Amino acid sequence: AAYWKNCRLREYAGGPFADRSGGLITFKAETIEKAAELMMSDPFVSENQIEQKWIKEWLVE
User: Fold this and answer.
1) Which of 27, 29, 39, 41 is most exposed, with the fewest beta carbons within 10 Å of its own?
2) Residue 61: inside a domain
3) How far is 26 from 13, CA to CA, in rounded Å?
4) pTM over cut 0.85
5) In 3D, which of 30, 32, 23, 31 has the Cα closest to residue 3?
6) 32-50 in b/e burial notation, b at 16+ Cβ within 10 A?
7) Is residue 60 included in any domain, yes or no?
8) For residue 18, is it within any domain?
9) Which domain holds residue 42?
């Protein structure tokens, strides 16, 4: 959580699921590539502590 909070991203929201089975992070990035760069720089990701990771572009209506 500290990594993502320190990124100071626009429209960031994140946290664990209520049953502690995982978590979710959402944020606004300029490009998909920038989002991927941020995700891959997360210490939990770079140290292979995350089982699943993906990036999805979300079209808010």
Assistant:
1) 41
2) no
3) 5
4) no
5) 23
6) eeebeebbeebeeeeeeee
7) no
8) yes
9) 2-46
Nearest to 1 by CA among 28, 31, 29, 23: 23
Residue 11 backbone class (left: φ over 0; alpha: ψ -120 to 50; beta: rest): left
Structure tokens at 38: 């941020």
Inside any domain, residue 23: yes
Instruction: Say how far apart CA 20 and CA 33 lie, in whole Å.
Output: 29
- Which residue type does 45 have? V
Burial (CB count <10 Å: 0-12, 13-18, 19+), residue 57: exposed
User: What's the total number of domains in the chain?
Assistant: 1
